[in-house]
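Input chain follows. Return C-alpha cells only.
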Amino acid sequence: MNGIQVRSIRLIIVFLFCFQCRHLIAQTSSGINYAEKVNTLIGSKGKGHGIQERYLEAGYTFPGAMYPFGMVQFTPTFFTEHKGFVVNQLSGAGCEHLGNFPMLPLPGELKASPDSMEHLDPRYQVNKAIAGYYKVKVKEKIDCELTVTKRTGMARISCLPSEKKITVIIGSGINSTKITDAQIRITGPGKCEGYANTGSFCGSPSSLKVYFVAEFDARPTASGTWKGKAFEPSSKSAAGENSGAYFTFDISSGKPVGYKFGISYVSLENAKQNLATENPGWSFDKVKQETAAAWNKYLGKIEVSSGNTEQLTQFYTHLYHSFGHPNVFNDVNGEYTGADHKVHKAERGDYYTSFSNWDTYRTQGQLISILAPKEMSEMVSSQLVFAEQSGGGFARWIMGDTETGIMQGDPTSILVANAYAFGATDFDSKKALEIMRRGAEVPGTKSQNILTRPFLEQYLGKGYMHASMMLEYTSADFAIGRFALEAFKDSTLWRRYLKRAQAWKNLYNPSSGWLQSRNNDGSWKKYDEDWREASYKNYFWMVPYNLDGLITVSGGKAKAEQRLDEFFSQLNASYNQEWFAAGNEPDFQVPWVYNWISVPYKTQETVRRILNEQYSNRDNGLPGNDDLGAMGAWYVFADIGLYPMVPGVGGFSVNSPIFSTINIHLGTGQTLAIRGGDADKKYITSLKLNGRPLDGTWIPWSSIRNGGELAFTLSAVPDKNWGTQAAPPSYDNED
C-alpha cells in the first residue's frame, strides 16, 4: 500500500469519525438526548377565551429557540406572536416586553408596507418545538426552522415547490410595546444592521438599545424598507416607529434560504463580533446540534426514569425553563452596559441580567445553586455589581440595565442568602452583606431611582407597615441574619436580625385570628387590605422560618390543619380569591406546611393533587406565569420530593417523588440518588438516607451535598405516623 493510499484511508476514517460525532454531539454521556424530551409549547397559551382573557392561568412562555442562560431568544412572543420571530424575550414574564427585530418570511413578492406587522396573519403550524430548535410552517407554504447560539440566532427557510419567490421582512421599529428610537440600514446584498430601544416592562420604561446585524446566504432579487404605510422599494435605510427592511429571494431552485443574526446591548461592532465568533459559517445543522449538546449538559444534571412519557416531557420542560434565565448580558469581548448606563467589562466570568427575584428567590435560585454553582455565583456577583453601579441598594427586578421596580419586598437579599446556603459561594460575601445591611438599615437606599425598601423608616420605628410587603421584609431579615451566621459566624448579627424577623407577630390580630395591616396609629386595617397579588389567606403562611410560632399563636396544630384543608379545597385562585393559587408565588410553599403540624401525609397528597390537576403536557398546561423559571423550578422540586422551604437555610422539606429512579448530579461533583418514587403511590411509609432510617420531614443540605442515596418506600394508603417523630426547623427569638 503506497503513501497516497494510506493518507486516503486515514482521511476517510477521520471523515467517518467526524460524521459520527455530528450525531453524537447532541447526546449526553448517558446517550440520552434530553433536548428531545422538552416540549417548548407548554405554557405558551392560557386557559382564557379570547385576547382579553389570555392571561388566565397562562404560562406566558414562548415556544422558540433559546440557549441555556443565553442572550438571544429566537421565537414568536406570547404577546404579539403574529408579528414573527423576535430576537429577545423573557419566559413567563407577565407584561408585554422586548420582542425586538421580528422576522417573518412571506410567500411571493412584497407589494405594500407591512406597517406595524399587526395584520400579517402568519397562521403558524408547529412541526417541532424542543430545546434549542423550533420548526413551524408559515401560511401553509413556508417551513421556517430556528436555532441559536448564546448570542446569535439562525434560521433555515424553505418552501413548497410551487413557490418561486419569498420575501423576508425584518421589523426594526417594532416590538411588543412601543418603540421611540430605531434604525435599520441595508449594508449590502442580503445584509443589514440597526438598533432599537427595548421599550418598557409593566409600565417601567427603558432607554437601553439592542444592536442588531443580520445576513442571508443568498443574494436577494429585491430589497427595500418601509416606515408606517410608506413602502420604499430600493431604499437602503429607515428609522422610527413601525419601520423595517425586506429582502425578496428567487427560490425556484428549491434551495433553502439561510438567515442569521447577532445582537449586542453595547454596540453594532460588538454585535458583528458576536456573530463572527459564535456563528461564522452557514451550517444550520451544526449550530442546532451544538445547541442541543449545550442543553443536554444542563438537562442531564438530573436524570429520571419513567415509563410515562407525559411525565418525562413535563419534567424536562420545567427543568428547561429553570435554565432559561437569568441571561448572559456581556458580549464575547466581555463588554456590557451597566446599571449606570455606561459600558463596562466583565471582570470574572459572565455578567448576567434578567432577574425576577421576587419570583425566583423561592425556588429557581436554589435549584441553580445546587446544579450549577459556578453560574449562580456569577449571577450573584452580577447583582452585587449592579447594586454598586446603581446607588448602593439591591434591585428587585432587573431587565437589561434597568431596575424596573416591579413587585415588592427585598427579594435579592433572600436570593443571595439562598445561593450561599445551597453551595454557590464564589462571590464577594463581605460586599454582599454590606449591600444587604444598607438596604435593611438605611432608609432611602436606592437602586437607580427605586427604593430598595419602601416604608423602611416606619418598619424600623413602629414594627409594622403594609402586611404583604412587611412579610417579605421579615423573610429578608431572617435571611440576612442567617447569611451573616453562615458566611461569617457572626452570631451577634444573626440574633439581631432574627429578632427583627419576628416582627410578623405585630401583624397578628387576635380578634380575627389572621395577619393584618395596621394604620399609622396602630389600629387595624380591614382584613383584606394591602395584599399584593393574593389574599390574606395566601399570605398568612409566609412566615416559613417560624411556622411553629405562627401555628401556636393562631390556635395550634388542629386549627392550622383545618385552615389548610379549607385553603386547599380549590387550587387555582386568582389574586383576590381565598384559596390556594398554584399559579402565583406567595403561597408556593404552603403545601409543605402540613409537615410542620404532624400530618405529612397531607403534604404528600396535596403536592400530587397540584401536579396532576394544575399541570399538563399541553400548550395551556401551566396554572400561571412561569416567571423566568420560578414555576418550572417549583415543579422540579415537587417531582423529586424535596422543597427548599426556609429562606437562607440549606435544607429541604420532604414529599413523595414521582420517579422510581432519580440521579441528581450536584455542583459539588457528587451524585444524589433518589430511589423508590412512584407516580401511582403518593404516601411515604419509610425513608432512608444512606441506609439510615429517617422519621422526619426535613433533610439538611449538609447531609446530601456530597451525594448519597435517599430510598423511599411508598404506598397507596397513607401512613399517618411516618415523619411525625422529628420536628422540622422553626426559628424564634430564643433559637
